[in-house]
Amino acid sequence: MNLFFSLIIITFGFSTTTEDIYDNSWALIIGIDKYQNVQKLNYAVDDAESIKEILEDLFHFPSDNISILINEEATKQNILKSFSEMTKNAKEKDRVLVFFAGHGETMDLPGGGEKGYLIPVEGDAEELYLTSIPMDELREIALMSEAKHMLYLVDACYGGIAAVGSRGLEPQKTSDFINKVAKFQSRQVITAGGRGEQVIEKSEWGHSAFTMNLIRGLKDGAADYNADGFITANELGMFLSDKVSTDSENQQTPQYGRMTSQEGEFIFVYSENTIINQDVKSVSSDEKLDLLIAKIDKLESQNKNVEVVDEDDDEDKDDEDDKDDGWHTDSEVWFYVQYIKSNTYNKILPNFNRFSIGGAYNFYKGMYVNVAYSHYYDKDVNKSWFKIDPQYFEAQGIQFGLTIPIIYHYLETQVSYSLCNAQYDIDGEFEANFIDRKLGHNIAINLLGT
After folding, report:
1. Where does the record place the region Disordered (predicted)?
2. N or C: at which end does the chain have fewer Cβ atoms within 10 angstroms?
3. Is 185 strand, coil or helix?
4. Distances 92 to 17, 149, 213, 369 between C-alpha atoms, Å
5. Among the residues of 22-108, which ranges form H helices?
6. Is the pTM here over 0.70, yes or no?
């Protein structure tokens, strides 16, 4: 007989998500091209809008929690007011990110040392104290916030980044690293460069060197140096320091550090953008090395594609990018293991178990196509299963599926079809005296929650 039925099953995965680390996420994003008293910029506003999109789409920052100030909106008063309000709203299990794309400047202090300033739209480099925002003032506001983690991403070059020399915990030497750094507070900062350096912008990039690599590091996961599915602020700082120096031909070198001695880390959960979460402890050294090599190769290929080209060609490429329809042809294959168990109270349907192992390919936006080996079985002799006498059921075969997101990656639906060698028996051995063995079919609709 042929087996043909449909099941609705709910399964739950156990992996570390953003919600396990943070209750809420807040961001203040600032981009200034049209300065009133200092040299204008070309791509700061584009940089700010790109970062806003990444935070919303990939890292689950709620739109209502993101404040964006562009050009004439980015006055000194508005920036300080928005930052103060955001840090007051953030609670003890929240994270706060501040992105600034614009000019920075350094003031020499009479007693030695230096003080770094961010220049708002009306700022004047000749009157920094009166018209601009000192980084140590932002540090003071940050220290008054209850937020667990805060990160400044400053696409500006200046000295005196208000950081201390704390190294923090080291992933290779700290067991359960992510859970430990997620528990401690942190106030961290990454800037585009140091004193006397200039922010490098190029038309072929459409961004500054800093933001271009920030997008690569976060969106493509290239900054996930240890391939554990998480990008910490320290990893991001190391990545940007290396790549921006290369792309700017050593004209600017990003600086990164901590504003306090606390050893926490601002965390981007990059693995939520894939179909599985990797547990770094369960990955062998060779597999980790392969993952890192793959990331480096991908990064090198991207760098080659950013060679200087004719502006007309670049405009054509931008037009093509604007027409991106969401289809993917270069995604990686992600392997997964799935176990499903259902309990029914219907004498027609069995208590059903399914074990699957296979791969998934992201072919369009958040949709994945799945191919897997599946093993189905039911050995509950208390069920009638179509006949008066109790019977056992078992099937093995290949499963084809389609996984579609319903609510981001929190809730997905998987529709699958399986072609199986199905058989029925009365003693559960299936080796001899089985009742029936035929080619079977199975259609399943699963709800997947993480």
Report:
1. 304-325
2. N
3. coil
4. 18, 9, 30, 39
5. 44-58, 76-89
6. no
